[in-house]
Specification:
235 residues; alpha+beta; Arc Repressor Mutant, subunit A; 3 domains; 4-stranded mixed sheet; 3-stranded mixed sheet; 11 strands; 20% strand
Length: 235
């Protein structure tokens, strides 16, 4: 089997490892390692990390296939769901696995790995990008992930929810927040939902604790105190 034939078969995979390549070649691992090194030297294959390779050039295709399990969230997911016009400068991946490397650079794009607890690992679907399955966070879960990890200012999240109320499921925002059981998250998303008149937000009140926290973690702690939700309204 020549390089062209192997390359055509590898085009079917978003990422691959030594076992997959060995299966394509019908050879043992020692032979496959030598063959793989030749592909790497010729620039036909890219190494993403130990035993994870690809020939795909779109970072979005490979991002959720580098580590298992994982899904794409934050700005990339929000852009995919048209909640923002901002073009992300990086792809954020949520995973329950611990990684020594916090990010990798691929095709001039930073792919960032965010470790989350198993209780937070849900709320994503398979989508198709150029014929490949990609694990993408739902719009509502991407918003909650952003609050949980404090990666997007609450003022921006608040604006996105207000501007896209018709396209978002407020019930899903609420039920996902209840499922996550994070008290700081419950305070912040509870205040947002309450402020736009979604009275079911009161179902989050049992998660509230006495300590007052800033509503927006990215801004100075200045503003009025909301007694109900225990936040300083600084947006």
């Amino acid at each position: 089997m020549n390089y062209f034939q192997v390359y055509k078969k590898l085009q079917l995979y978003p990422t691959f490892n030594l076992d997959i390549l060995a299966g394509i070649l019908g050879k043992d691992k020692d032979y496959t390692k030598v063959y793989l090194n030749r592909l790497l030297k010729r620039g036909l294959v890219f190494r993403l990390q130990r035993n994870v390779y690809t020939i795909q050039e779109d970072p979005l295709i490979v991002a959720s296939r580098i580590i298992w399990p994982s899904y794409i969230s934050l700005w990339s997911a929000l852009r995919y769901h048209n909640l923002t016009e901002q073009l992300p400068s990086e792809i954020n991946v949520m995973t329950t696995q611990m990684k020594s490397r916090k990010y990798i650079e691929y095709m001039e794009t930073k792919i960032v790995f965010n470790h989350i607890k198993p209780i937070y690992f849900f709320g994503f679907n398979k989508i198709h990008v150029k014929g490949f399955e990609v694990f993408m966070g739902e719009a509502e879960k991407a918003l909650l992930d952003a609050i949980l990890l404090k990666r997007i200012s609450l003022a921006e999240i608040y604006s996105m929810i207000i501007e896209n109320t018709k396209d978002l499921s407020l019930e899903k925002l609420l039920s996902y927040a209840l499922r996550m059981k994070n008290k700081g998250l419950a305070k912040r998303i509870g205040w947002i939902l309450d402020s736009i008149g979604y009275r079911e937000a009161d179902r989050l009140l049992p998660l509230i604790y006495k300590t007052v926290i800033p509503l927006d973690y990215s801004k100075p702690v200045k503003g009025r105190k909301d007694e109900k939700w225990g936040v300083i309204v600084n947006i």
